[in-house]
Amino acid sequence: MRVMKAALVMVMCLAWQSACSRISSGCLSTMRSCVSPDLCTSEQNLLRKICVSEDGKCELPSSERCNVTILTILGHSPLWRECVCTDEDSCRALQLLASLCLSYLANEHKQLKTEWKASHLLGYVPGPNSSCLLETTLCIQDEVCNRQLVPFVQSCSDPQCEDSRCRLAMRRFFSGLPQTVAETLVFCECEREDQDCQDIQNTLHSSSCPGGHTLMWNCLEMLDSCTGDKLCRQTFEGFLSNCFGPEDAPLSEYSTRDLIHLIDLDFFLSGDKECRMAFVATMGSILQSPCTCHGLHHDDLYRCSILHQAIQNRSHFRLQETKRNFSSTQSQVNKSEQSRLWFNEQLWYFLTTVFVVVVVILTLVAIILHKLGCSQ
């Protein structure tokens, strides 16, 4: 990992010699040690807000915006405060650091894809109504899956758990899984009396710390918080577009209230691959934090219920899975029935042919015997 960080800094400096020439070796060394999952992954949202990212580079549009960005960063996260060399050319340092993070995340994604090639879960197909306890056990038993699962569980079960870090760990976990494995864990379920399974399900599906809230917010407040965040809003817009059909106008122009009006559960495309992928992409976002509709009335209650059904009720996806399994079973039954009917038809044809042949032979024998009798 240390070698990869040093290589990233070297590549960036070769590409941006003018930027690196204005930054001291001490500052470069500090930035190299800062490049980590904690910094780069947790601040992806901030990077998207302040950078125009092209080809793995962070381009700050203007020096004025750069100065505002520096102040934003210093007040936003202590991680950034320790990594941006404010006593030097801060804009250049920020630009290089952000690009290092973007490259780091891209390399991490490639590395994960390579690791998953050795996993036994790649070809695994779960049965209908798969248990969260069973699927999590299979993940634990798989070396690659378990290596990604452990940091997620630790972050969300730690006594000093923070919701933001729990969501970050969940997002890293599910985004690093192959789609089939991710769907297996996202859409698993539990029997009501199976408490162990339900405990695991809550850890897998709730992007918040256990017991961390004395008062649960309602789902409309949850969506307001999401749409106020650029990355979360894009995630929600992607879910709406893929699960309820694209709109003529860009969803970025819609108000939060208008976005909810796009949800029509009668036209939920939960069986489509793109819709399922879009739902998996919500894991680790505020959209999956527990919310309620209690205390709301009239239109607010209606909108809240629709939102909760669409974004936190997985039964729509499980119903489609059941339909697919039923269709597959029905198809097999139909094929079996067709084979049986074909066999019966062939048997009937064979017996009819034999009967006709026997009748013809007996008739010929009778005629011959009759002529022999007459001649005598």
Spatial order of the strands forming the largest sheet: 1-2
Number of helices: 19
Helix content: 55-70%
Give the number of DSSP strands. 2
Specify the structural class: mainly alpha
- Overall mean confidence score, pLDDT: 78
Order of helices and strands: HHHHHEEHHHHHHHHHHHHHH
- Poorly predicted sequence stretches spanning 5 or more consecutive residues: 1-6, 8-12, 14-18, 322-333
Gyration radius from CA atoms, angstroms = 32 Å
What distance separates the N and C termini? Answer: 112 Å
- Principal-axis shape: elongated
Strand content: under 5%
Largest sheet: 2 strands, antiparallel
State the gist of this model.
By secondary structure, this protein is mostly helical. It has helices at 2-15, 17-21, 25-34, 37-42, 44-50, 63-76, 78-83, 90-116, 132-141, 143-157, 163-175, 179-186, 195-205, 219-227, 230-244, 256-261, 273-280, 298-312, 315-375, and strands at residues 52-54, 57-59.
Task: Kindly describe this structure.
The protein has 376 residues and is an all-alpha fold. Helix content is 69%, strand content 2%. The longest helix has 61 residues, at 315-375.
